[in-house]
Every structure is written in C-alpha cells, then in structure tokens.
Design goal:
asparaginyl-tRNA synthase (glutamine-hydrolyzing) activity, glutaminyl-tRNA synthase (glutamine-hydrolyzing) activity, Histone, subunit A, nucleotide-binding, mainly alpha, single chain, 2 strands, EC 6.3.5.-
Length: 99
Amino acid sequence: MSAITRDEVAHLARLSRLALTDEELDHFAGQLDQIIAAVARVAEVATDDIPPSSHALPLTNVFRPDEVRPGLTPQQALDQAPAVEDDRFRVPRILGEEA
C-alpha cells in the first residue's frame, strides 16, 4: 500500500510552486514512497543502549595552547607602510565619507 498518494504529491507540488504533469505526479509518488519506507527502516533500529552523539569518533583538540608572545611595536608594524598617520596605516578615503 502506498504511504503517499498522488493527491498529496500534487499538494506538495502546489506548495512548492512546481508544475508537474500527471506522469511526474505518479513517478514522484512512487519515489517518495520509497524514501518514506527507507526512513521508516532507519527508525526501526534499536538505539536504546546507544548514547546520542554528534560525531562517530571522539574529537580531540588539535590546536596548541594559547601562549603570550611579544608582538610588534607600532614602529615595527608601520615600518614598511606606504603612508602613516598618527601611528596608523593611512589609506585612501572610500565612499565619500566625511572626516
């Protein structure tokens, strides 16, 4: 017995604003029936003793721990800049913004 009818497929097509022919309605009804059956088989799996998880394998942090390191001084950072103003990079004005 079909779990989804041709009329239900037509209704879904209208909601999705899809124009389907009669042949397509019959074809998609069969395909959706197979999808619903496959999902039902997955739902039958006994999972009572399996804890929920988001990953199949345990995850470990692969990043190094944060360590404080000395950074550049403003002079070192701006040393090769083409234009500097008030210890900052000077860039061209964009979008006609006022200062």
